[in-house]
């Protein structure tokens, strides 16, 4: 894992934006996996401002609430349209977001996995992380080999997301999420975390044992993971000074 600690979310998001911009320039037909939530908001604004060519890019989102109409302001369809897709020249047919209103959810999930395979697999997956270590909506106790499927949100995640819905009661219980096995097949994972609320989950992810109790810790088994953090999210890392030194002394050919 490459741990990149920056003073502010702005600087950490800036590095993530440069990593993605470089991929899109090197591989105009890249396949991106995308996350929602508050963490990637600035990253998407930055990408939209970079005037990149998205015409051949394909995207797959990690997750969507079940039962929320697509047009609902808190659906991840709305989130992606508002925060990224309407600002870039992506072809609508290249956008994939789980259908939280599919009549047959297991069949839909199987087709979603098949579409990822047919697109050639995900080149780079953007990830946020829950305070409990979830990636996508793979809550603690999720199978580390899981595929796209229905999951039930924990009370903690529903409480955390109540800030978007106005009340906890309004947060759906069920979601469709890419599985941990699906995420692990991306060629590269780019995890962002900001704020002290994420510090324990990040410490477990980077330095803890690999455990379904902190699902993001499985990324220790992935060959290519970059973790972009601000200082508060990094505050519980025991080897933070080492990670800073590594980053500050990267050979020029390894940077973006
Ligand atoms: C959303 C997703 C989730 C979020 C996580 C953190 O697509 O995959 O794992 O990344 O819940 O959410 P924020 O960024 O709102 O703290």
Give a short synopsis of this structure.
By secondary structure, this protein is of the alpha/beta class. 34% of the residues lie in helices and 16% in strands. The strands form 2 sheets. The protein has a 7-stranded parallel sheet with strand order 1-10-9-6-2-3-5, with helices on both faces.
Outline, from the CA principal axes? globular
CATH top level class name: Alpha Beta
- Write down the overall mean pLDDT: 97
Low-confidence stretches: none
* CATH topology description: Rossmann fold
Task: Write up what this structure looks like.
The structure is a single chain. By secondary structure, this protein is of the alpha/beta class. It has a single domain, classed as Rossmann fold, CATH 3.40.50. Helices cover 34% and strands 16% of the residues. The protein has helices at residues 9-26, 41-49, 76-83, 105-118, 155-165, 180-184, 199-207, 231-234, 240-248, and strands at residues 2-6, 31-34, 58-61, 63-65, 95-96, 124-127, 149-152, 174-177, 188-193, 225-230. It has a seven-stranded parallel sheet, with helices on both faces. It has a three-stranded antiparallel sheet with strand order 4-8-7. Helix 1 packs across helix 2. The longest helix is centred in the N-terminal third of the chain and has 18 residues, at 9-26. The mean pLDDT is 97. The chain binds fructose -6-phosphate (F6R).
